[in-house]
Amino acid sequence: MKLNFKKYKKLKRRNDFLEAEEILFNKEAVSKLKEENDLERLEISIGQWGLNFLLFFGIFILIFSLGFVVHLNFFRGNEFQIAAQKSALKSIPIIADRGLIFDSSNKVLVYNQEVFDLVFFPNYLPIDKGEREKVLNKIKEKPEIAEVINEQYFKKENSLDSLVIKNDLTREEAIIWESYFAGYPTIQVIRQNLRQYESPLIFSHILGYVGRVSSDDIKKNPQYSNFLKIGKTGIEAFYEDNLRGIDGEIKIKQNAYMEVLGQSIYKKPQVGNNLFLTIDSDLQEYSYKRLEQQINSLGKEKERGGVVIVTDPQTGKVLSLVSYPGYDINAFSKGVSQDYFEKLKKSNLNPLFNRTISGLYNPGSTIKPFMAIAALEEKIIDPNKKIETHGYLSLPNPYNPDKPSIFPDWRNNGFVDMKDAIARSSNVYFYIIGGGYENLEGLGVKRIKEYLEKFQFNIITGIDLPAENVAAIPDENSKDVWRIGDTYNISIGQGDLLTTPIRLITNLNSIINGGKIMRPYLLDYIKDYDKRMVFQNNPLIIKENFINPDNLKVVKEGMKKTVDSPLGTAHSLVDLPFSVGGKSGSAQTAGNTKTNALFYAFAPYDNPKISVLILIEDVPEGSLNAIPVAKDILLWCYKNKILE
After folding, report:
1. Average pLDDT for residues 529-550, to the nearest whole number?
2. Most CB within 10 Å of its CB: which of 248, 263, 315, 368?
3. Which of 300-305's residues contact partners 24+ apart within 8 Å by CB, and which partners?
4. What kind of fold does domain 281-339+356-639 have according to CATH?
């Protein structure tokens, strides 16, 4: 509601009201105040002239203040900035020692060597022209560093907060440079850690290496300084936050003439945590050398890579992880030379590539246990039903009736049931249960994909290493026309079906450990510098109870028959002093011109403690070239009390 005060205005007449001054200013009151000497108590009107004077005076003060501020900023600002810089404390970092890495027996795998960097801090260049010229002239006396600063900083108009001029100096070299630039905070000697790796080739794909931060690293983490070193690959990268300590800080005090008055440790550095791995370094070394020996025995007319993975199938602990060939991680720690880096890049074997977690391979016949489980779960076939295999499967060719489509077996296995088919690695048997034949309905590509995804072939394992790859499971949408032959191919681990070695061994382990998919892991526990426990890793079950235990038992028995049966593909392991199960695989690649050898083994059969996966690229005799490596590794584990 709008209020209207106009109607009340009529009631007011000027002479009807007394103002305050009319009450106060009467003769009697004023006389009385004079007598009592209280005249100053009166509120006296200042009048219009007084108001104008106050307004003018206020504006004058405001203009004067603004002018003074402008004067300070534009005419004397540089002077004050210089004075502030001179009186400010300069901050220099103390690089914290990086944590160490140990194997499962507390053997040191990597340690720190003390080295020094010579670092240019452009933010500490004096603003005062004279002082600045003095510092730059001092730098110019050393052309080798003046050139670096000029090229890397001034010519690029860089905004870097620091620039490494020389790196990996010895203590003696550092003392010389520190003495030369004493009193010049713009150039500082910074203590660094140079990582030194034991057995650098053998552990290259586990440990990785440490290197200087790149421009991309700084973009992702603006708090990084240019002289910082961080983990680039492997465990060094994955556990960067644990291994890298907290840097300390030195404060340098100067007088108004930029002379150093003293320095003190403002904040002490905190050493990084120590990592203790599940890896047995002796087993790792043996596995690498045994694989290398086997590859060399196959002849040098072809370049071959390979993989060895040894795990505890009950827990997921990784005891050995070999990607062959390795590379010298010490060379990268020091700052890899262009020649060595180019050599690695040009190698057909790509030593920098971690085959164990990033390599995608056809699993070959090692996929057959999963096909068998899917067929049992879907009641496609009774495990005791025998199928005559003939040595090949023939299908009518609608495009050329005189030339049927032939799907070969690697040998004529005669009549086989499911366990025999696993032991002898019958292709025909798995063609039929995978794609169907005559009156026997197969799984079909849709259900094959469904079961492979149940075993999580379509996702990464979660192993604690960077750059793990994910398997590829084809389906009817993978091609313009999906044919029965495509289903036959993936039923025996060929075609477009690809997986990583770490995923393959993880899933095969789930068949022999009672149906548990375990997360594979390399880190056992973490302790701080004072040996206090920071983190204890524990086995993690990713998935369980998704397969009928009776069906797992049938397939596991078939894998035992692989060794025990005279017709089994790994019968050569039967003379080992413990019970063994396994599954062989030969996968054709590159248009059927190359064959990769695979073999998976586990022991002891009843309560497996060790599982081994071997993969060798481009071999002449398929899985026969991989089996001896697995046998020797199992025997080594037995002799060294890992397998009891």
Report:
1. 98
2. 368
3. 302/618, 303/347, 303/348, 303/349, 303/618, 304/349, 304/616, 304/617, 304/618, 304/619, 305/349, 305/350, 305/355, 305/616, 305/617
4. Beta-lactamase (3.40.710)
